[in-house]
Amino acid sequence: MNASVEELLALADDRLVLGHRLSEWCGHAPILEEDIALSNVGLDLLGQATRFLELAGEREGRGRSADQLAFLRDPTEFRNCLLVEQPNGDFARTIARQVLFDAAALPELERLARGGDAELAALAAQAAKESRYHARHTRDWFVRLGDGSEESHRRMQAALDFLWPFTAELYAGRGELRAELETLAAQATLELPGDPDFPASGGRRGTHSEHLDHLLSEMQCVARAHPGAQW
Q1: Residue-by-residue DSSP string for the chain
Q2: Are 160 and 96 in contact (CB under 8 A)?
Q3: Consecutive sets of 10 residues in the chain, 231 residues long: mean pLDDT of each?
Q4: What span, in angstroms and rounded, lies between the C-alpha atoms of 174 and 168?
């Protein structure tokens, strides 16, 4: 059975929004090598988003291109999870956000790559190959910062505590993800938070935080200012 347009938009929007967030680090990362690394991860995610949006546009049948879906939808039409729209914060928060996203996204891509939707399976297989490198890179930083200095440990634990409620949309019913992250957190001498009292959800239904409004106003401003322009 082929994936629905809504499912494809969720895959695309997660990566479009997260890729944009990572692009905000360009020129601002703590070291030059990481400036380049985060930019590359962001470019990979934007490439994945483009391919998922193209397939969504084809299946929607309304003649909308990937660019139109990216730049001409309102926030309520986006289907990304709330985790990816959270601001970068400090470097620890960016790393924690990426680790938490990859923990759910990579297994999902691997599952889709084995699925019966041939077009989506091919896209997911390519995305999974890229995402394995992303996960390895950010998990290394997660452990280095968590098990580093007193200050880096404090910042990483604070980032984990802050972001954990936003994982509800990605981790619901997936207890194996928590077990995997507990192992990683132990390596980083960090404590995985318990179940949040007020888990954040709604992104998949188009209910977002004000952070997405601000992000889209920046990301879409040129396309909306020059409708119909060809780039």
Answers
A1: -PPPHHHHHHHHHHHHHHHHHHHTTTTTSSSHHHHHHHHHHHHHHHHHHHHHHHHHHHHHTS---HHHHHHS--GGG----HHHHS---SHHHHHHHHHHHHHHHHHHHHHHHTSS-HHHHHHHHHHHHHHHHHHHHHHHHHHHHHTS-HHHHHHHHHHHHHHGGGGHHHHTT-HHHHHHHHHHHHHTT-------SS----GGGT---HHHHHHHHHHTHHHHHSTT---
A2: yes
A3: 94 98 94 92 98 98 96 97 97 98 97 97 98 96 97 98 94 88 97 86 95 96 86 64
A4: 10
145 neighbors 152 (Cβ within 8 angstroms): yes
Instruction: Determine if the pTM surpasses 0.85.
Output: yes
Q: What does the alpha-carbon distance between residue 117 and residue 225 come to, in Å, rounded to a whole number?
A: 37
Domains and CATH numbers, the chain: 5-190+209-225 (1.20.1260.10)
